[in-house]
Structure formats: C-alpha cells, structure tokens
Amino acid sequence: MPQTKVFHIRSPLIKSKPLSKKAGKDVYLKLDNLQLPGSFKIRGIGRTCQEAVLINGAKRLVGSSGGNAGVAMAYAAEELGVPLVLFIPTSTPPIILERLKDYPGAEVRIAGTNWDAANQEAMTLLEQDPEAFFVHPFEQETTWQGHATLVDEIKEQLVQEHSDLRVPASLITCVGGGGLAAGLIIGLQKHGWTKVPLVCMETTGSQCLYQSVKQGRQVKLDAIETIAKSLGALAVCSKLLDLAKIHPVIPKVVTDAQALDACFKFAQDHRMLVEPACGAVLSALYSDKLNDCETDIGGDASPIVVIVCGGNMASMDLFQMWKDQRRMELK
C-alpha cells in the first residue's frame, strides 16, 4: 500500500500499579480504548478500508457490524471520503446507534436479530453493486495485519518507554469473532515471541472459542446471551483456530457479573470507563482467572500485557444502570 497516514494512534502502554500489586508482577496496559473511534478496531478496519479505496479503487464500502467495527468503518469511510452502507442487527446497543450519528456519510440499515443475519443482507447488496467493497468486521488478512501493529508497538514501548527488555509472560485479550486475537498471534510470531501465550477471555453466553478448542472443531453458538455485545459473533474465524494450532492460546470464560465488576474496579483504579467486553479482559486479573493457568503462562517475574480494547459501549448512565443491577443481584 502506498505511504499514507494511518488512522490509528500509537496508544499508550502504561504500567498499572494496582494490577501489578494484585498479580505480584508487572502488569502493563495497552490503552487502545483511547483510539479516536473508541477501540482497537480502527487498526485493522482502517488498513482494510485504505487498501480497498487507495489501491483497489473501491467507490463505496459495505460493512456489517453492530459494534466497534461498525464505528471504525464509519470513521475510516469518512476519512477516505467514500460512502458506507452499514448493516446492523436489531440487537445493536442504542449507544452505538448514537455513535454512528457522528458520521453522516454512513447509511445505517437495520437487518436481522444478530450479526450473522445483518451480514447476509450485506452480501445481498454486494451482489448488486460491483463497485462496492465489503469490509468484514474480523475476517480479512489486511485487518489481521493491522491488529498485529499492537505487538509492534508493545515491543518498542517496553524497551523505549519502560526500559523493560523482558519477554512478556502472556498477553491477555478478549475474543468475539477472533480478528484481534488472530492479529496478535501474527504479531507475536513476527517478533519471535512464539512461546508467549495469548490468554483469550470470553463471557458465558459468547464462548465460541472456548467451545471450539474444547471440541477440536469450529463451534457455532445458537445465540449470543451476554451483556458483552462486542463479543457478538456466533463463531470465531477459522484463521484463529488455525493459528491456535501453532501458537499457545489459553481460552478462559467469565460471567457477565465478573466482567462488569472488572469494569467498575478499573474505573476506580484508572479513572476510565470501558465496556463489558473489555471488562472480560480485565477480569482475568481482577477475578484471579490467571491463577489456574500459572503453569501455562510461566510463574516467573516476566510482565503481563493486557489489551484494553475499547470503550464505545460504556457511559456514565450505563455504568449506573449496571451498578444498580449488580446491587439487586447481590441482595
């Protein structure tokens, strides 16, 4: 791709004093929740959209996502000056609908009750429009390569900003469709961190990776039943399952309650609001989920790196509602 401005920022990598104390080792937070469109998605989606328009000459973009990927598509389309037709399911949270209103060039069409149904409508439109390019929310090579830049930055920042020459004990992320996890593994392999486990967090009701690894095949869920709407794919991409055969991947499942509690604790510790999918990532430490895989991630003093992936689906009103719900559950 010709040299051009990337759409993502080099997000901060900070050492978390509260989580380092809890884990008994250094914990670094890669703050991709600070990306301008609100999540890590702009890394891969941005690269895919740029290649489609600047190299392949696409006149229009078509996408499907009721979450962070859709916001990233709208942002990238606006930056590129091309129209976008975005299909979203009826399950799309109202807060995402509000975010999308910031991008008047994006035509939003509501179709189906889940992402798979919305995606099918996008496929139908593409058959009628040969000049349009389809942007998948998690299953394109350019998207995985874009997400791999996270590892590029982490390796540089550990050395340049923290004088930390150690190889991480593990990276922790979440899994919905698996695009982020696939990109992280590509990045880990690229930099020779081939033995660094990728801990992949899911919530109960979205655990398609956990079930796939457990059964040794790609498992498609019947429905998504979790508050972590960003983890709303019924099945992970086959690319992630292929990469999991050559790289250590540790899938873990937490409850919605654990994910929400991690969001609350993170807000208290670091004064940032993140969405429940990101809470699932953080719950690996806040709920001590890493303790039962200490052997797999190494018990030495090597640091843990946590991908703080996004905050589009978080607000003060939602936090108050979630807190009220948790109080009722705990009574």
From TrEMBL:
Listed under catalytic activity are: L-serine = pyruvate + NH4(+)
Any single biological process term in GO: isoleucine biosynthetic process
What keywords are assigned to this protein?
Lyase, Pyridoxal phosphate
Domain named Tryptophan synthase beta chain-like PALP is located at 9-310
* EC number(s) stated in the UniProt entry for this protein: 4.3.1.17
MF (Gene Ontology): L-serine ammonia-lyase activity; threonine deaminase activity
Pfam families named among the record's database cross-references: PALP
Q: Which domain of life is it from?
A: Eukaryota
Answer yes or no on keyword Transmembrane.
no
Q: According to the UniProt record, what class of enzyme is this?
A: lyase
Tell me yes or no: is Lyase among this UniProt entry's keywords.
yes
Tell me which cofactor or cofactors this protein depends on. Answer: pyridoxal 5'-phosphate
The UniProt family comment states: Belongs to the serine/threonine dehydratase family.
PANTHER family listed in its UniProt record: CATABOLIC L-SERINE_THREONINE DEHYDRATASE, THREONINE DEHYDRATASE, MITOCHONDRIAL-RELATED
Q: Quote the protein name from its UniProt record.
A: L-serine ammonia-lyase
Organism source for this protein?
Tigriopus californicus (Marine copepod)
Question: The organism's lineage?
Answer: Eukaryota, Metazoa, Ecdysozoa, Arthropoda, Crustacea
